[in-house]
C-alpha cells in the first residue's frame, strides 16, 4: 500500500499502539481528575432538597434543567451530527469526517468540563457541574470541530486528539480573558468560538502546509450522495443555530430575543448565498459547497449580538451581508489563500467561521456601543450588559471598546496558539499520511470492498480495475 | 446540452442574472419592511422587566419561550429536514429537493412573519413578534413545501420563489378568514395548511401541465440510497408531528392532548399503510413510496381535531382510515389524475395532504359538533372552543357548521389562487426546463462528475458511456 | 426468483394476504381495546380546569407536559431513527431495517400503552394516559428493537409483529415485577429494557438457528454509504441517551443528575472503544462496526445508576469499561457465539445491550447498596430510593440485594420467554425466507432497479450481469 516515491521516506500510518495509548492514557487522566475535582452542582445533587429551601425555590419545577436542557440537546446535535456530517462531503472521507469528529468531541467535552470548570465553577476545591456546564463544554468543542474543518483529511486521529487537548486549554484561557477580565458579552461565541477556532485552525493548517497535496486532488471532490449526507449536517446546524446562540443567554427575554435574531439572520443568509452562488458561476448554476456552508454564516455573524437589541431587521442585514461575504470567499479567497499564503483549508472555514466570526465580533461591538436606556429600558439595560458591581460605571461606548478588544485578543490567542500547536503536530511521530494518501478513509479505517469503490477504481487512473 | 427537438424553441435555463436578481430584490424588500414594521414582542424585548410587572408575571421562568420553543424546533426540523429529505427520493433530484426547499422556506418564513404579523400581531403600527410567530411562519411555509411536492422536478427556483410569495399571501388571507372571521379551530392546520396547500399545488401543476413529460420518465424513479435518504424525511415528519399539531394549542391540557391524539393516529396509520401496500401489489411486496408518504396521513387527518376531545381510540380510527385512503390513492388515484385530469403530481401530495386534509377538516367539524359540557367540563368546554365574547352563544353544532365552512373556503381559495399563480408561472421568463430535462439536478446545480453518474450514463440509452 | 435447491422445499415469501391480515386484525383489536379502556389522564383532559384546582396547581404552566415532552421527543427519535438507521449498515437490507423497525415500533407502542396501562395507570376501569405513558411505551418498544437486532435480515415482518406482541406483554410483566414487587430502581432500563430485550432476542435467534446462513454471506457486509447511514442512527442514539436515561426520573435533581451521568459515561466510552478497535486489528485500523455500536455501551451501562449519586467520575469509569467490554465482544465473543453456541446475532446485540445491560444492573445494585444519608442528604436519600410507605425500613444493602434480584428475574423472563416465542416463530406459516435469500430487501420490498444493484450484480457470482 505504501508507495514512498514522492516523499523522502514512507510514512508509517499504522496506529495500532499509538492511538490506543493516547486514548487510554487520556481517559485515565480524565478519570483521575474528575475523581479529584468534579462533583454535581446543587441542582443536580440529591442534597437539592435541602439546598432548594436555602435558595428559596418552591419546587423541583424551577430546576435549571428545564430551562436549559432542550437547548443543550440542540447544541449537542449540532456538534456531533451537524459538524460531523457537514464534513462528509468528500467522496472517500466520510468515515473520517464523522468518526474523528466523534472522537475528538467526546474527548474534548471531558477536558472542557475540567478547564472551564476551573475557571468558572470552582468552589471549595471542587468543580460543581450542571446542565450549563454541559452546554459550555459542547461550545468549547465546537471551536475544535471548526479547526478540524481546515485540516480535514490531512491529519491522523492522534494529531486531532493532541490538537484538541491544546485547543480546549487555550479556548478556556481566551474565554476567561474575554468574559471575566474584559467583561465582554459573547453568548453565541462569534469571538470565543468562531473567530478563535477558525484562525487557530487556519494557522495550524498553514504550519502543516503540504506542497504536494495536488497528488490527492481526485479525492478532494464530492460524489452525488456524499453531498446529500453533507446537507444533513448543514440543515441541523442551520435549524438549531437559534438554540446555539441562545443556549446560555440570561433566562427570559434575552434567550427569547437571541433565538429570534438568529432565526432572522439565517433566513436572510440563505437568499444572498443562493444569489451569489448563481451569479458567480458562468452558467448560473448553484454550487453545493456554497449551499452547504455559506448559508450558515448568518448564525456565526450574530453570535455576539443576538442577545442584544439587534432587532429583526438588523439581523436580516447582518445575515444578508455574511452570506455574500462567505460565498465570495469560497469563490475567490480560498484559492488565493491556498496559492499565495499556502493555507490549505479543506472545508473553507475561513469563509464560514473566520470572516463571519469577525463580522459577528464587530457587529457585537457596534450594537453594544449603540445601546441606550431608551432601547433596553432602565432595568433591561443594566441586566442585558450586566452593568453591576465593578462594572456599574461602564457606558455603552466603553463596552463597545472592550468588545472590540475581545476580537483582538481572540485573534492573537489563535495565531500564537495555532503556531505552537501546529509545530507540535509537525513532529513525525503522530502517524499522518503522505500527501498522495490524503482524503482517503482507507488509511485509518477498515473500508468495505463495495461496488462503489470498484467503480471508483475503474475510473481512477493509477489503480487496477479488479479488487 | 440543449437539444430543442421536442419543443418549438430551446428553453434558456441559465439563471445567472435572473435568480440573483429575484433573491436580492426580495431580501432588500424584506429588510425595508422589517425595518418599518417588525419589532420584538414584550417577552423578547429588553423592556420585559418593566412589562413583566404589568403583566403580573413573577419571574423570567414564565416567559412563553419555555413553553413553545421545544415545539418550535421540532416544527423547524419538519419543514427543513422533513419536507426537504422526503423529496430526495428521485434518483437525480436530491440537490433540488433539499436545496430548493431550503431556499423557498427561508424566503417564505420572512414573508410569512410580515403577512401573518399584519393580520394577527399588529399593534400601534408595529408587528410584535415572539416564538409563536416563528412557529406560525414555519406552518405557513409548510403549505408551500406541500405545493412544491406536486411540481417537484418541473420548475425553476425562480418559479418556486414567485409561487412562495403568492402562496404565503393567500395562506395568510385564508387563515385570517378561518381563524378570525369564521372563528374556526384548526391548530394542526388540516384545513389551513394541508387542504389549502395541497389543492393549491395541484391546481398549479394542472395549469403547468407538460404533455411530453414521459420523456424524462427514466429519471422519475428512485435508486436504493435515494429511498433511504427520503426515509430520513419521513421519520422526522412522523416523529415530530405530535409537536406540529400541538405547537400553538392553548397551554396545558390542550397541548398535552394534541400530542397524545397525534401520536395514536400516526401509530395506527403505519399499520394500515403497510397492510394495504402489501395487499395492493401482486407479489405482496411493500412499496417504499407508500411507506414514505402514506404513513404520515394520520398526522394530517387529526390536524384540526387533535386538540379536541377526540380521545385515543378516536385517533386510532382516524389514523387507520387515513392510512388506507392514502395508500389506495397512490395505487389508483395518482395514475388516474395524471392520465385523465392531466394533474402531474410528482410526490403524490393528493394522497398525503389533500385527501387526509379533507378528512381532517371533516373529523374536526364532527368532533366540534359533538362536543358537550359533559365531555369537556363546564370551564373546559368554553376554553377549548374559546366561546367567549361575541362567540359566547355559539353551540357545538353551529361551531361544526362553521368548521365545515372553513373547508369550503380553503378549497375555493386554493383553486382560485392556484389557477392565477399557475398562469403567472406559465410565463416563459422564469427559466424552467424542457420536458426531457425535468427531474435532473444538472440543470440548476453543479453536479459532481462521480462514479455513480458514470454508471448511470452507462445504462441510460441516449447518453454516451464515457464522461 | 425462488431457487429451492438448498432447502427441502421452496419457501413461500409472498405475504400478500398474511401481512395485511395480521396488521388489520391487530389494529382493529387496538381500536376496540382503546375504546374500552383508554382515556386521557387528568392533565390531558379538558376537565383539567376543574381538576387543577383540586390538585392545588396554580397554572397551566405546571402541566407535566412541559417537564417530560422534550425528553419524550428525544426518546422517540432514538426508537425510530436511532434504532432504525443503526440497522441500515447491511448493503441490501436498508429498507427492511428502517421499514420493519417502523412497523414493529408503531404497533408495539399501541400494545404497550395497553399492557403498561393495565399495570400502572389503571383507575376505575380505565387506563388514564399522559406524556409519561408515551415515554414508557417507547421504552418498552425499545426492548423489541433490540431483539430485532439479533434476527435482522432473517425474519419476515409477520414474525416481527408476532414477536412484538409477545415481547411487549412479557416486558410489561417483567417490569411490573421489578418496579412494583421488588421495588427496584431502573430509570434508564439497564435491566428491564437492555438485559431483558437482548437476552430475549438472543434466545429467539438461537431457536431460529439457520445452519446454511453462510449462503448469504456476501450480503452480510456493508457498503461505504450504508455505513454512513448507520452512523446517523448511532449518533442520534448517542446524543439523546442522556434524555433516555433521565426521561422518567423524578423531577428536579434526579433528572438533572441522570443526564449528566449519562453524558459523562458516553463520552468516556467513545475513547475506549476507539482504543480497542484499533488495538485489536493487525493493521491498527478502526472498524466501523465498533464505532457504530460499542460507543453506545456507556449509555446502557449507566441505565440503572444514572439517577443515583454515581458521580461524574464514576460514570467515566463505567463508560470506559463498557466500551472495552463491548468492543472485545465484537472481536471475540460474536464469532464464538455463532460457531459454538449457534447464536447468530446480526447486529451484535450481545455486545451492545446484553453485556452492558448486565454491567448496568450490577453497577446499579452496587451504587444502591453503597448509598448513605451523607451522600444523598436526609431527604434526598428517602426521595431517591422512594423509601416510603411499606419500604420505609429498607436499607441500602437490602435495596442492593433487590436490585441484583431484578437482574436475575429479567434474565429468567428473557430466556423462558425467548424460548417460547422462538418456538412459535419457527412455525412454517410466517413467510420467512430461505437461508440464501436472507439479508436481501428484494424479498419483501419493491426495490428500484438502480445502477447500484446493476453493479452489484456485476460482481455477484451467481447472477447474470444484465437486468
TrEMBL record, chains A, B, C:
Keyword set, alphabetical order: Ammonia transport, Cell membrane, Glycoprotein, Membrane, Transmembrane, Transmembrane helix, Transport
Signal peptide: none
Location within or outside the cell: Cell membrane
Family matches, as InterPro entries: Ammonium/urea_transptr (IPR029020), NH4_transpt_AmtB-like_dom (IPR024041), RhesusRHD (IPR002229)
Record field: transmembrane: 21-42, 65-86, 93-114, 134-153, 160-179, 191-209, 221-240, 260-280, 313-333, 402-425
Primary location group: membrane
Identification of the protein by name: Rh family C glycoprotein
Organism in which the protein naturally occurs: Taeniopygia guttata
Highest classification ranks of the organism: Eukaryota, Metazoa, Chordata, Craniata, Vertebrata
Amino acid at each position: 500500500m505504501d508507495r514512498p516515491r514522492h516523499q523522502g521516506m514512507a510514512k508509517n500510518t499504522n496506529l495500532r499502539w499509538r492511538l490506543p495509548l493516547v486514548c487510554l492514557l487520556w481517559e485515565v487522566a480524565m478519570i483521575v481528575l474528575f475523581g479529584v475535582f468534579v462533583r454535581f452542582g446543587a441542582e443536580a445533587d440529591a442534597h437539592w432538597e435541602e439546598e432548594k429551601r436555602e435558595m428559596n425555590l418552591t419546587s423541583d419545577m424551577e430546576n435549571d434543567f428545564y430551562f436549559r436542557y432542550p437547548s443543550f440537546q440542540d447544541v449537542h446535535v449540532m456538534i456531533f451530527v451537524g459538524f460531523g456530517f457537514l464534513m462528509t462531503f468528500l467522496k472517500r472521507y466520510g468515515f473520517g469526517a464523522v468518526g474523528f469528529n466523534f472522537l475528538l468531541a467526546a474527548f474534548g467535552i471531558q477536558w472542557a468540563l475540567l478547564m472551564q470548570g476551573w475557571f468558572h465553577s470552582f468552589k471549595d476545591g471542587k468543580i460543581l457541574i450542571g446542565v450549563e456546564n454541559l452546554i459550555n463544554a459542547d461550545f468549547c468543542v465546537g471551536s475544535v470541530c471548526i479547526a478540524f474543518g481546515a485540516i480535514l483529511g490531512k491529519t491522523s486521529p492522534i494529531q486531532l486528539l493532541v490538537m484538541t487537548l491544546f485547543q480546549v486549554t487555550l479556548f478556556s484561557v481566551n474565554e476567561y480573558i474575554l468574559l471575566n477580565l474584559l467583561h465582554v458579552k459573547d453568548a453565541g461565541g462569534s469571538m470565543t468560538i468562531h473567530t478563535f477556532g477558525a484562525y487557530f485552525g487556519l494557522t495550524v493548517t498553514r504550519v502543516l502546509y503540504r506542497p504536494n497535496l495536488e497528488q490527492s486532488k481526485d479525492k478532494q471532490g464530492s460524489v452525488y450522495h456524499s453531498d446529500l449526507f453533507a446537507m444533513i449536517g448543514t440543515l441541523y446546524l442551520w435549524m438549531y443555530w437559534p438554540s446555539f446562540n441562545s443556549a446560555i443567554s440570561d433566562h427570559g427575554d434575552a434567550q427569547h430575543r437571541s433565538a429570534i435574531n438568529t432565526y432572522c439572520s439565517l433566513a436572510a443568509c440563505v437568499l444572498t448565498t443562493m444569489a451569489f452562488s448563481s451569479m458567480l458561476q458562468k452558467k448560473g448554476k448553484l454550487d453545493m459547497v456554497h449551499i452547504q456552508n455559506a448559508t450558515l454564516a448568518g448564525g456565526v455573524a450574530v453570535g455576539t449580538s443576538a442577545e442584544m437589541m439587534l432587532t429583526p431587521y438588523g439581523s436580516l442585514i447582518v445575515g444578508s451581508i455574511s452570506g455574500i461575504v462567505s460565498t465570495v470567499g469560497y469563490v475567490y479567497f480560498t484559492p488565493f489563500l491556498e496559492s499565495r499564503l499556502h493555507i490549505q483549508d479543506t472545508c473553507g472555514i475561513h469563509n464560514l467561521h473566520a470572516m463571519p466570526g469577525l463580522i459577528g465580533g464587530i457587529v457585537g461591538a457596534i450594537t453594544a456601543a449603540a445601546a441606550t436606556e431608551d432601547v433596553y429600558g432602565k432595568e433591561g439595560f443594566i441586566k442585558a450588559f450586566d452593568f453591576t458591581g465593578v462594572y456599574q460605571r461602564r457606558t455603552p461606548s466603553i463596552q463597545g471598546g472592550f468588545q472590540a478588544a475581545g476580537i483582538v485578543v481572540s485573534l492573537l490567542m489563535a495565531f500564537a496558539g495555532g503556531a505552537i500547536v501546529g509545530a507540535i503536530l509537525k513532529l513525525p511521530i503522530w502517524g499522518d499520511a503522505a500527501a498522495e494518501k490524503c482524503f482517503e478513509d482507507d488509511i485509518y479505517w477498515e473500508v468495505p470492498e463495495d461496488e462503489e469503490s470498484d467503480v471508483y477504481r475503474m475510473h481512477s487512473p493509477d489503480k487496477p480495475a479488479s479488487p
